[in-house]
Design brief:
Elements: E1 39-41, E2 51-53, H1 59-67, H2 89-103, E3 110-121, H3 127-144, E4 147-152, E5 160-167, H4 170-176, H5 180-187, H6 189-192, E6 193-205, E7 212-216
Antiparallel strand pairs: 1-2, 3-5, 3-6, 4-5, 6-7
Helix pairs in contact: 1-2, 3-4, 3-5
């Protein structure tokens, strides 16, 4: 199934984010990493402070992060559709398996923490303001460590949307959400959203990527 091309940052179409001298040149850092490349674009934001440093990750986490460069949404109703069915997970995991074989190293069973943020913004919400809050919180989360992938869509005709974060561990996610930018964004939630819900999932990749599953998160 063809993917749905949605990778626009909140507020981007409103001119909120202008290219500056600090923005990373996409010709220099690509999601399709050359061997030995250190930094990975893991979200629609491309400035240096938004890039994932692969040298901070172990073998299994680095391979998944690289494979997630292929992460794509598959359907237009992703805001309300089942999470697993909304993305090309089989393709991503095939890429993990390919990268593992290419590396010549064993891939040990590992689990990862996934957050799906389902929301509906208020008609009065200024999308540009939402974009600024989101971008600041993203840079803060990347700096905290273990933030492998960030994706979000655009509000549908009912103003419903979906954003998802893939983390090394739940502990990393908790740490990444404690800074001032996240507190500011959280404080604006009631004013900006008519509805929101956080779903938690666990991605389990078995030894040598022989199988995988995404299940509801349970401690």
């Amino acid at each position: 199934m063809a993917s749905v091309d949605i990778q626009t940052a909140p507020g981007a179409e409103l001119g909120v984010f202008e290219k500056t001298s600090t923005q990373v040149d996409l010709r220099e850092i690509s999601p399709e990493l050359a061997p030995g490349s250190r930094y990975l674009i893991q979200s629609p934001y491309t400035e240096q402070e938004h890039l994932l440093d692969l040298e901070t990750l172990n073998h299994e986490n680095a391979l998944l992060a690289r494979a997630l460069s292929r992460f794509r949404v598959l359907r237009h109703d992703y805001a309300t559709a089942p999470y697993v069915d909304s993305f090309n997970w089989p393709e991503v995991l095939e890429e993990v398996k390919r990268l593992a074989a290419e590396s010549g190293k064993e891939f040990k069973e590992t689990s990862f923490y996934i957050v799906a943020f389902r929301s509906r913004i208020k008609k009065t919400t200024e999308y540009a303001d939402l974009g600024r809050l989101d971008k600041a919180a993203h840079a803060e989360a990347v700096a905290s460590g273990g933030f492998l992938k960030y994706w979000f869509g655009e509000p549908d005709s009912e103003l419903a949307n979906l954003a998802t974060c893939i983390w090394r561990t739940r502990e990393d996610a908790k740490k990444g959400g404690t800074g001032p930018a996240h507190r500011k964004a959280a404080g604006a939630t009631r004013a900006m959203y008519a509805f929101w819900r956080i779903d938690q999932h666990r991605l389990i990749i078995r030894d040598n990527v022989e199988s995988w599953e995404i299940i509801p998160w349970e401690e």
